Amino acid sequence: MTHYISLESVSLTGSWLTIGVFDGIHRGHQEIIRQLTAGAHASGAPAVLLTFSPHPAKVLAGREIPCLTTPEERAEILSHLGVDGVITMQFTRELAERSAEDFMAELKTRLGLRKLLIGYDFALGRGRAGNFQRLSEIGRELDYDVQAIEAVRLSEDVISSTLIRQTIADGAVSLSAAKLGRYYSVQGPVVPGDGRGRTIGIHTANVDTPAGKALPANGVYATWAWVEGQKYPAVTNVGLRPTFTGGEAIPRVEAHLLDYSGDLYGKMLKLEFVERLRGEQKFPSVEALVAQIRSDSEQARGMLR
Q1: Domain check: are 240 and 151 in the same one?
Q2: Residue 176 maps to a domain
Q3: What pLDDT is stored for residue 196 in this prediction?
Q4: In a shared domain, residues 124 and 267
Q5: Is residue 225 domain-resident?
Q6: What is the pLDDT of residues 208-251, one digit of tens each?
Q7: Which of 48, 97, 112, 236 is deepest in the core (most CB within 10 A)?
Q8: What is the pLDDT of residue 43?
Q9: What is the DSSP letter of 55?
């Protein structure tokens, strides 16, 4: 798979394309991608996905939208779903002001666009004028077909990135996993902390997560920890560590790997959130905290088993 960081560097012919933010690559997104790749490959055509960074709401409304996936994470997930090319365009006000006709004409030129697959509520261009009807009209002029994909539901709810962000913010990571089709994860390098874990006999890895990445609600979670291609059961705390500080403003992500021995500093660590064990607590003593961590570890080990 090729990851393009601008449209200007792309030159393809006969492409099948889908367009959207695709934050999280959830089960609704996956259905679009499944139909895209199946149809494109059956026709001997490249399957291409065009996405944007930062989130349009940040540019247009100044809203901070915690991301479920960074552009790099999105590209990695898509590489396993059969997509041949991912284009990550920088979203700007200038791009938002382009007409649907102008933007689609450029895509036709650069991708040799033959078919466009879009979500049921998709629209692009100035004033979101490029809805299914208008894109179909433009397609007849430029010689490409348009297909709209119906929403995917879990129970009665339409699966959406917005709802998944809320379930993560609530700590409902098992529900998030059902909507994503995989465990929600964060990853980053292991960086030095204050060394307190060593003093209490429980080693933890402090993960430097990307700025703007959505974090689960403060609390303790059963997680899978991936390091150097190997998976380990772990207990992960997201929060402000009230037993020791009580004054931190930004949550930390600290993982205690249950069956790992070795130095993690500087290594990339990926944490998959399986289930929330409890909320974050302030303990009356270090001994009480250690006893709870050991209890959490046993509970997590049982869940992950």
Answers
A1: no
A2: no
A3: 60
A4: no
A5: yes
A6: 999 999 999 999 999 999 999 999 999 999 998 665 555 566 78
A7: 236
A8: 97
A9: -
Label residue 283 by pLDDT band (50, 70, 90). confident
Does the pLDDT of residue 92 top 60, yes or no? yes
Number of structural domains (the chain) is 2
- Kindly report the backbone phi and psi dihedral angles of residue 75, in degrees, each rounded to the nearest multiple of 5, phi listed first: -65, -40
Report the CATH number that the domain containing residue 69 is assigned in CATH: 3.40.50.620
Regarding whether 82 and 30 lie in a shared domain, the answer is yes
Contact status, residue 215 vs residue 240, Cβ threshold 8 Å: no
Task: Show the tokens assigned to 235.
Answer: 């207990």
Residue 147 lies in a domain: yes
Question: What residues are labeled active site?
Answer: 254
C-alpha 96/C-alpha 103 separation (Å) is 10
Rama region for 79: left / alpha / beta (φ>0; ψ in -120 to 50; rest): alpha
Domain coverage including residue 146: 2-157
Mean pLDDT of the chain: 93
| Percent of the chain at pLDDT exceeding 90 | 84
Residue 289 lies in a domain: yes
Average pLDDT (276-283) is 91
Let me know whether 149 and 212 are in one domain. Answer: no
Per-residue pLDDT at 262: 86
For residue 238, the SS3 value is strand
Phi, psi of 90 (to 5 degrees): -75, 125
Residue matched to tokens 């649907």 = 100
Query: Is the domain of 105 the same as that of 53?
Result: yes
Residue 113 and residue 148 in one domain: yes
Under 8 Å CB-to-CB from 11, ≥6 apart: which residues?
A: 110
Residue 108 to residue 143: CA distance in whole angstroms: 9
**In the numeric block, which tokens belong to residue 23?**
């934050």
In the chain, % of residues over pLDDT 70: 95
- The predicted pLDDT at position 53 comes to 95
| Same structural domain, 116 and 72 | yes
